[in-house]
């Protein structure tokens, strides 16, 4: 069972809680939560969350967003969102602090929706709001005047060019501000979209207590289904963790992919050729955040859902 009292909260050792490997996170939302007065709703549940032994609650993106779910951010410094007002969010953060459960901010910094048309007639300027960047903050591969992306593109929207010093400086300032508001942990959204070395810089700059990255790419498949050997898949996730300076954990998508096939009677999948668990947890348990579904894979999006009739077996 997790324990929040593992060392001083503002420890200078960024990896202390991470290396312990005993955190238990609650994803405190699904794809539809924005419809349900969410900050107020969640605040009522805090005593039960604490009693259940969770060390952190991952909250949905708290900043103003073009989409109600929060994943198309625009004004990062506005904490009025479809989940509730800034005032209600702060009341929730205060309640979590009172019950010694760490609030985890969903850090969506791969892309940002512009406010004004700029280069090429695209919305790639951010005039009139804090972090008033111009087209040089947007990668050249998504219509901006910045450099080429250091990762994969999130298509259809301006992707942020993290290679620009002014962009990183502004992002670190914003992350520090989120910490001052009361967020203690970070979850990095779409971590494939930009180099992990920037995640390292952001963690070192804002000093969250615990961080986890969403490094989600496809498992290895053949004509008959999922390959038995997923070593290259878990190696890519391990490489990402390494490149963050080992300062971030990662969601164990390898284990999810294998588990949801194994429960269909293919239990031979549950051990790799070395006799270890076949996902990231078999190689680096303290950095592997295991899960079976999230707001993307399950919920109403159901992009890659765990077989619902087998959930209790896990």
Automatic annotation (TrEMBL):
Single GO molecular-function term? alpha-amylase activity
Cofactor(s) this protein cannot do without:
Ca(2+)
Q: Which SUPFAM superfamilies match?
A: (Trans)glycosidases
Reaction it catalyzes: Endohydrolysis of (1->4)-alpha-D-glucosidic linkages in polysaccharides containing three or more (1->4)-alpha-linked D-glucose units
EC number(s) stated in the UniProt entry for this protein = 3.2.1.1
Its keywords, alphabetically, are:
Carbohydrate metabolism, Glycosidase, Hydrolase
One biological-process term from Gene Ontology?
carbohydrate metabolic process
Residue ranges occupied by any Glycosyl hydrolase family 13 catalytic domain in the UniProt entry:
23-312
| Source species, domain of life | Eukaryota
One Pfam family named in its UniProt record: Alpha-amylase
Query: Which InterPro entries does this one have?
Result: Alpha_amylase, GH, GH13_cat_dom
Similarity remark: Belongs to the glycosyl hydrolase 13 family.
Q: What is this protein called?
A: Alpha-amylase
């Amino acid at each position: 069972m997790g324990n929040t009292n593992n060392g001083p909260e503002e420890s200078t050792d960024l990896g202390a809680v991470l290396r312990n490997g005993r955190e238990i996170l609650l994803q405190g939302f699904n794809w539809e939560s924005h419809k349900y007065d969410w900050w107020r709703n969640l605040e009522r549940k805090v005593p039960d969350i604490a009693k259940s032994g969770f060390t952190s609650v991952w909250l949905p993106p708290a900043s103003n967003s073009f989409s109600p779910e929060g994943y198309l951010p625009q004004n990062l410094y506005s904490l009025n969102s479809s989940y509730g007002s800034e005032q209600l969010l702060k009341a929730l953060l205060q309640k979590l602090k009172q019950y010694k459960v760490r609030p985890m901010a969903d850090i969506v910094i791969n892309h940002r929706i512009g406010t004004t048309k700029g280069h090429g007639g695209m919305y790639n300027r951010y005039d009139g709001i804090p972090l008033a960047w111009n087209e040089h903050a947007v990668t050249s591969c998504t219509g901006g005047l910045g450099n080429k992306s250091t990762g994969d593109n999130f298509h259809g929207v301006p992707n942020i060019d993290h290679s620009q010093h002014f962009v990183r400086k502004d992002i670190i300032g914003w992350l520090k501000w989120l910490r001052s508001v009361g967020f203690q942990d970070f979850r990095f959204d779409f971590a494939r979209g930009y180099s992990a070395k920037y995640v390292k810089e952001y963690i070192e700059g804002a000093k969250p207590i615990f961080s986890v990255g969403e490094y989600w790419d496809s498992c290895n498949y053949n004509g008959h289904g999922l390959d038995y050997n997923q070593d290259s898949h878990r190696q890519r996730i391990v490489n990402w963790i390494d490149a963050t300076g080992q300062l971030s954990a990662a969601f164990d998508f390898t284990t999810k992919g294998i588990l949801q096939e194994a429960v269909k009677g293919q239990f031979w999948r549950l051990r790799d050729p070395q006799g270890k668990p076949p996902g990231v947890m078999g190689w680096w348990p303290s950095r592997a955040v295991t899960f079976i579904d999230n707001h993307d894979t399950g919920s109403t999006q159901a992009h890659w859902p765990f077989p619902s009739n087998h959930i209790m077996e896990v």
